[in-house]
Design a protein that fits this description.
heterodimer; A: 354 residues; two-stranded antiparallel sheet; 6 strands; B: 290 residues; mainly alpha; ABC transporter involved in vitamin B12 uptake, BtuC; two-stranded antiparallel ribbon; transmembrane (chain A); ABC_transp_permease (chain A); membrane (chain A); cell membrane (chain A)
């Protein structure tokens, strides 16, 4: 019981912004609005919101690896794609009876994590750091895209699942929860919305606890100064590898949910552009904090979609400009800057009152 | 089919792979080796060179002059990019990656909007010749010679000219060079322009052999990055030997299983090499020497 309490105390701490009743009150309010939201909206808009939420997981994974861990990875989209394809292959082969889709979800995430263990071993135990890590992960991502893009022929199949090359896989069953009487099928509207929202809140809170625990503090210590962390007796390679694998699993979760949401997955979801977008959300949001990453991702995604309606070609140029300007002018991220500013105002107000 | 034709065919494929790796990597290697900056917009500089070359050839210029124009325009764009973006990020290497990626996104999509989804190509010059049962393109031999020429020219530039000496001094101890009166900012600008120009040259040289699309840079960058990662920070001790080793791997895998497996071979090679030699071939050689 005390252990559980200690765990909840880790919800706030030095590694995450936002503390005290004001922050958690706001959190509860946002959560209540999010829970009530489908009651006042139509299925299409709710489905679209699910699409936004799906991307938050990959953004959080990048926030963990890049923002907290300090190693820039372009490989998140690779894990995204591996898990997405994994879910497709498993469910097309074994169907959706007996809750198998949920097993497939877990298995697909595990496959992505295993791949990350393999890749991460070579990278971190080879002590690749900094820019090289980015290049190697990028090369892996591009390679996977090219590989999947050329699997058009009928000889490329796993079981009964055709890989279909550039067109990608489609028509995999949606998530199905076994239920006495009739199984609940989660199509991309209200049902899936509550599942994804629940997962999102769980992952967000769990990451807060993780980052404020001693593990999180070591990760941040490695980001600040790897040699110092090593001199203090931590095997930084293990910590980096574990962070990388957790990040890969989150990116994989994003990939599975994306596949479930649209019931398709294509190689271009692992391409250059796809790999750039999470980077933009996280950089613009503020990579070194979980809350700002979530807010930044949702805001930039909404802006991107709004822009796409007026001219999809220009939306990508705008995103590129946004990224370059953020790096030049507000390297810590726009949302995080605003959050810190609000925090300072709040402290000043409470001081004046007291 | 006798042994000689087989040997020639293998040599030809090796030369082709070597030229592609070295030409696409040397611009990146100069910028990384001299400045520690990874230029993710490298592929877009190559694309810029190829587009300018094609445009000038369509306008009536002979191909060599077109390639020269492509090189110069890329170098000029490089100067602008260095002044506007890269200059402010020298102490933040990870941010230069992110920023240059933003630039690459802008360049690819901007070209798509302005020029369209494809551009009329340039015919491959020189025709072909016959050895045994197969015919070979003469232009590929020209490309191989160009790769050797670029390596030789870079060697000469960095060892025998005043700019080369100043550049190497700036790279070794920047503030010492600055104290001795070297304008280090100018040197960085020129080095970046040099790297961008080399990318443009690669684009110009390969413009006659490929379809010109805004995303053509992506075909080059994987090979370029792999070569630079394996080679390490030194252009001569790194890029050239890495190009040789990787060309053997790539041409062998390609002739065994096809284009894709050539690239997979490259990727496996890079992952193994970084595990064994984290600082690349040049890091290994330099450590042995001291």
């Amino acid at each position: 019981m005390t252990g559980l309490l200690a765990m909840f105390r880790r919800l706030e701490g030095p590694q995450t912004a936002g503390r005290g009743p004001a922050f958690w009150g706001l959190f509860a309010l946002v959560l209540a609005v999010a829970l009530a939201y489908p009651l006042f909206s139509d299925g299409y808009t709710v489905g679209n919101t699910v699409y936004f939420f799906v991307w938050v997981f990959i953004a959080l994974s990048l926030c963990l690896i890049w923002g907290y861990g300090g190693s820039l990875s372009f490989g998140q989209t690779a894990f995204f794609g591996i898990a997405g394809y994994g879910y497709g292959i498993l469910t097309i082969n074994f169907g959706s009876a007996y809750g198998f889709t949920l097993v497939a979800l877990v298995a697909a995430v595990a496959i992505a994590a295993l791949f990350a263990v393999l890749l991460g071993y070579f990278m971190f135990f080879g002590r690749i750091a900094g820019v090289f890590l980015g290049i190697v992960t990028l090369a892996v991502t591009l390679m996977l895209e090219r590989f999947m893009a050329q699997t058009a022929g009928p000889e490329w199949h796993i079981g009964t699942a055709r890989l279909n090359g550039f067109n990608g896989m489609s028509a995999m069953p949606p998530l199905t929860i076994p239920w006495p009487g009739e199984p609940i099928v989660l199509f991309a509207d209200v049902g899936l919305y509550y599942l994804v929202l629940g997962l999102l809140v769980f992952v967000y809170l769990a990451l807060r606890i993780l980052m404020n625990s001693s593990f999180g503090n070591v990760i941040v210590a490695i980001r600040e100064n790897p040699e110092r962390a090593e001199m203090l007796g931590y095997d930084i390679r293990k910590y980096q590898l574990i962070t990388f694998v957790i990040g890969a699993a989150l990116a994989g979760l994003s990939g599975v949910l994306y596949t479930v949401w649209g019931q398709y997955i294509t190689p271009s979801s692992m391409g250059m552009t796809a790999a750039a977008l999470p980077l933009i959300w996280v950089a613009v949001g503020g990579r070194s904090d979980l809350t700002s990453t979530v807010i930044g991702t949702l805001v930039v995604l909404a802006a991107f979609q709004a822009l796409t309606i007026y001219g999809s070609q220009y939306a990508l140029v705008f995103m590129g400009v946004l990224l370059v300007l953020t790096v030049l002018i507000a390297p810590n991220g726009l949302v995080l800057g605003v959050m810190n500013w609000l925090g300072r105002i709040a402290t000043r107000l409470t001081q004046r009152a007291g | 089919m006798d042994i000689a034709t087989h040997v020639f065919s293998a040599l030809y494929q090796f030369g082709d792979a070597f030229a592609f790796l070295v030409l696409s990597a040397c611009g990146l290697a100069v910028i990384f080796g001299m400045m520690g900056v990874i230029n993710l917009a490298h592929g877009e500089f190559i694309m810029c060179g190829a587009y300018v070359t094609a445009a000038t050839v369509h306008a009536g210029l002979p191909l060599p002059l077109g390639i020269l124009a492509g090189t110069l325009v890329s170098a000029l764009v490089g100067v602008v990019v260095e002044l506007a973006v890269i200059r402010h990020l020298y102490d933040r290497p990870l941010d230069t990656i992110v920023a240059t990626w933003g630039l690459s996104l802008i360049a690819t999509q901007g070209t798509l909007i302005m020029v369209g989804s494809t551009m009329a190509g340039v015919g491959t010059p020189f025709g072909s010749f016959q050895v045994g049962d197969y015919s070979y393109s003469i232009y590929r031999i020209v490309l191989f010679c160009a790769a050797l020429g670029v390596l030789a020219a870079l060697y000469a530039l960095f060892n025998w000219t005043r700019f080369g000496v100043l550049a190497r001094a700036t790279i070794q101890v920047p503030h010492m060079a600055a104290a001795l009166g070297v304008d280090t900012r100018l040197i960085y600008s020129l080095t970046f322009a040099c790297g961008a120009g080399l990318a443009g040259l690669a684009g110009g040289l390969y413009a006659p052999t490929m379809t010109l699309v805004p995303t053509m840079g992506a075909t080059f960058i994987m090979e370029a990055f792999v070569t630079v990662v394996i080679g390490g920070a030194d252009v001569f001790l790194g890029t050239a030997p890495a190009g040789t080793v990787l060309a053997v791997v790539k041409s062998a895998m390609t002739s065994w299983q096809g284009q894709l497996f050539g690239q997979i071979g490259l990727l496996v090679a890079v992952i193994i090499v970084v595990r064994v030699l984290p600082k690349g071939i040049s890091g290994f050689v330099l450590r042995e020497r001291t």
